[in-house]
Each structure stands twice: as C-alpha cells, then as structure tokens.
Amino acid sequence: MLARLRRRSELDRVIAPEIKDDAFYESIIRVASMPGLSHILEIGASSGTGSTEAFVAGIGMQPEAPTLHCLEVSEPRYRALVERYRDIPFVRCYHASSVALSDFPSVDEVASAWRAGDPPLRTQLRWLRQDIDYITEHDVPQSAIDSIKEEFAIDSFDVVLIDGSEFTGTAELAQVYGARFLLLDDIRTFKNRANYERLSDDPGYRLMASDPHLRHGFAVFCRASEPI
Ligand SMILES: C[S@@+](CC[C@H](N)C(=O)[O-])C[C@H]1O[C@@H](n2cnc3c(N)ncnc32)[C@H](O)[C@@H]1O
Fold first, then answer.
1. How far apart are CA 186 and CA 123, in angstroms?
2. Which atom of ligand 1 is closest in space to residue 18's alpha carbon?
3. How many domains is the chain built from?
4. How far is the C-alpha of 164 from the C-alpha of 121, rounded, in Å?
5. Confidence of residue 4 (pLDDT cuts 50, 70, 90)
6. Ligand 1 atom 18: the closest Cα is on which residue?
7. In this structure, is residue 218 part of a structural domain?
C-alpha cells in the first residue's frame, strides 16, 4: 500500500527548549514541589528539555510524586521525550493533541484577534493551517485532555501548563478551568492573551508570578483559596 503523502512541516523537527533556566522555569519548579499534588498536565512538552525538565526537578523534591501527564503532538519531539524520561515512572507521555480539531479557531476568529505587534497575520494563518494539517495527516489522536480526565477520574487537575499550539489555549483553558495552579506561557500572543485576561478578571484566581517581557510573557495563577 502506498504511504499517504505528507507535507514537510516545522513540527517534523526537534527544537531547542523555550522555558529554560529563567524565571518561568523557576516558578514551575516551585509549583511542582508543592505538597498535595496528584495530577499535573503539561500541554506542549516538546522533547522534554524545557518545561518538562523543570516539572521533573520540582516533583523530585516531593516525598510522594504526583503523575506528570505530558502532551506532545509532534512525532519526533514525542519520541525524544519518551526516550529522555523512560526511567522516570511518574512521567507519562502522550502523542496526542490536547483538544479536537473542531476546537481550533476559524480563520476569521484568528484574523479578528490579530493586534499590532503580533506576527504578520499571513504567518499566523500559515501556522494555523500547519497545525491542523499535521494532526490530520499523521492521524494524531485528539481530545487528550478529556481522555486523561476520564482514564484517571480527574475532576480538576492540580497543575496545568498551557504551552501547546498557538491556537488552542482558549479551548484548553475551558477544559481545565478550576485547576489549583494554571501556568501560561506567551501571554502576549494569541495562545494565552485571552486566557491571561480571563484569569486576571476572576476573583477566584490570584496572580502568583508574571513577567510580560520574558520572551512573549508568562503568568502563574493559583486559586485564591490556596494557602500560599
Ligand atoms: C512552544 S512549544 C513548547 C515548549 C516547551 N514547553 C519548552 O519549554 O521547551 C509548543 C509545543 O506544543 C506542541 N503542540 C502543538 N500543538 C499541540 C496540540 N494540539 N497538543 C499538544 N501539543 C501541541 C508543539 O509540537 C510544540 O512542541
């Protein structure tokens, strides 16, 4: 049988870590080392040398390790991730999309959210097409957040990092709202701009750490009831 023809995609490459040895990396270690965590969700693990490494370092300070669920859509990055953490039992890696293709925004939604200072709209729409094509052409399993919640009977994750596709942050937050800690990368781009505004306006959440000028900005929120 002929293999299905696949376009070359930027998602076919392993890339350098993004959250690495900076204030966000330190915040991730701090949150992951808090007592009483059971399930941590990392959306956008890449090959595991950035935010995953910080989570693993923080969890390593705990007497009882929570489970770290790592989602990664790119096949080569997922393979490198699995290889790196194969001997760490609390790390579970998923080659899957956090949400379903139907949760991606339309071209019109991306266009109307575009602001001066963002990457050119033409570039953003190329990335949108690329993310959708990759999931379709590689038959990547979808709706991983829902599947993990169901498999582990999770009502609310303890910690969630939203750092996956540029276009799915809003859909992801809707599925994890209520988590004790919500960590957002890229709060000045489409990925997490609206999420940052939503959480900032919610008296049920408190901003623990943020720097809008570190790369595209990050923020760490905790539920207002957290005793920290
Ligand atoms: C900005 S990078 C993550 C960087 C990583 N957190 C670090 O610290 O190096 C975003 C990652 O999300 C992955 N991704 C894209 N769409 C996704 C989706 N729908 N579900 C899960 N991961 C996705 C990409 O393949 C990419 O590796």
1. 17
2. 9
3. 1
4. 19
5. low
6. 97
7. yes
3-class secondary-structure state, position 210:
strand
The pLDDT, as a whole number, for residue 5 is: 62
Degrees, nearest 5: CA angle 135-139-143: 65
Q: What is the mean pLDDT of residues 153-175?
A: 98
CA 225 from centroid of its chain's CA atoms? 24
Which residues share a beta bridge with 205? 223
Cβ burial 193-208 (10 Å sphere, 16+ → b, else e): bebbebbeeeeebbeb
pLDDT for the residue numbered 1? 39
Q: What is the pLDDT of residues 46-93, one digit of tens each?
A: 999 999 999 999 999 999 999 999 999 999 999 999 999 999 999 999
Residue 174 predicted with pLDDT over 80: yes
Tens digit of pLDDT for each residue in 94-152? 999 999 999 999 999 999 999 998 999 999 999 999 999 999 999 999 999 999 999 99
- The CATH number of residue 50's host domain is 3.40.50.150
- Does 6 reside within a domain? no
Residue at 41 is within a domain: yes
Ligand 1 pocket by C-beta < 6 Å: which residues?
A: 11, 17-19, 43-44, 46, 50-51, 71-74, 77, 97-98, 131, 163-165, 168
Q: If you measure from the C-alpha of residue 150 to the centroid of ligand 1, how many angstroms do you get, rounded to a whole number?
A: 22
Task: Scan for tokens 């998923």, then name that residue.
Answer: 94
Nearest to 166 by CA among 36, 29, 7, 11: 11
Using most ligand atoms within 8 A of CB, pick from 73, 135, 139, 184 the residue to mutate for ligand 1: 73
What is the atom index within ligand 1 of the atom nearest the CA of 134? 16
Q: Which atom of ligand 1 is nearest to the CA of 71?
A: 21
